[in-house]
Backbone:
């Protein structure tokens, strides 16, 4: 049964919000007796289940086969199909031609930002501009709202411990901790250590002395797991940062390095000297 295009687009948004990878196939040109009219859409998942339609029949089977390939190659493409029983066609009696555009959507990289202060307002626009799904959490209603941080996908004005009770990030997600005055930083960090969460990146702001003190307190509680060894604190690369905008750039640069698998950070000029 044909599913309205609006519902397919709505599901695509939900998939991005929930971190689900998918391929969207769209009939961009359907002529003559093509079963799939221009604008028909289909969403295919890694397990080959799908929603929507490009017209059914052998065309749809071939489209699903191509979607399966794109889940591996993660590339977009445009293909033309000859829907005839000729040697050049795919054996459909209805005839006609169809062009289908395939677009791969990777799972969204969610980043949970604890603290909605000035630094948050500087870092969120940068992270959003490079494809991160930003979720901001702060226990102050005057700070945690979409008006202050419009680039954030979700903003929660809630007690940190209440939010953390149900916190279950995915392996490809990230966490930033910089609450106002560092009041709640240690509380959040300890909670994450007790959960021993497995995420791509965790960064916490603070001077070297404050970070060492925080780590020492948590180690003294003999919490199981080795999460402390994976935390980037003090957060960010050393770029001589002073302003919130510069600190934001240093943080984003460090996060990108981690996501891109760069273990040794150096100036590209140094590589020229090798």
Residues:
């Amino acid at each position: 049964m044909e599913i309205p295009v609006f519902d397919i687009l709505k599901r695509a948004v939900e998939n991005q919000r929930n971190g689900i990878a998918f391929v969207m196939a769209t009939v961009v040109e359907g002529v003559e007796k093509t079963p799939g009219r221009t604008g028909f859409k289909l969403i295919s998942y890694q397990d080959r289940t799908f929603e929507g339609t490009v017209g059914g029949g052998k065309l749809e089977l071939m489209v699903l086969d191509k979607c399966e390939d794109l889940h591996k190659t993660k590339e977009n493409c445009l293909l033309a199909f000859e829907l005839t029983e000729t040697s050049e066609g795919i054996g459909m009696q209805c005839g006609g031609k169809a062009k289908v555009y395939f677009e791969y959507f990777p799972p969204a990289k969610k980043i949970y930002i604890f603290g909605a202060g000035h630094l948050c307002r500087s870092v969120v626009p940068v992270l959003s501009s490079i494809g991160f799904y930003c979720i901001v959490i702060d226990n102050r209603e005057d700070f945690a709202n979409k008006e202050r941080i419009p680039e954030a996908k979700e903003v929660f004005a809630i007690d940190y411990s209440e939010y953390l009770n149900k916190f279950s990030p995915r392996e490809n997600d990230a966490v930033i901790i910089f609450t106002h005055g560092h009041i709640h930083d240690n509380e959040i960090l300890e909670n994450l250590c007790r959960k021993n969460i497995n995420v791509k990146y965790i960064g916490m702001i603070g001077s070297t002395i404050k970070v060492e003190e925080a780590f020492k307190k948590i180690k003294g509680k003999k919490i199981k797991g080795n999460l402390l060894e994976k935390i980037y604190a003090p957060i960010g690369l050393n770029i001589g940062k002073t302003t919130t905008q510069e600190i934001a750039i240093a943080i984003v640069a460090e996060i990108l390095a981690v996501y891109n698998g760069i273990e040794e950070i150096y100036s590209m000029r140094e590589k020229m000297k090798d």
Notes: Residues 149 and 269 are 36 Å apart (CA to CA). The first strand starts at residue 22 and ends at 31. The chain is about 35% helix and 20% strand.
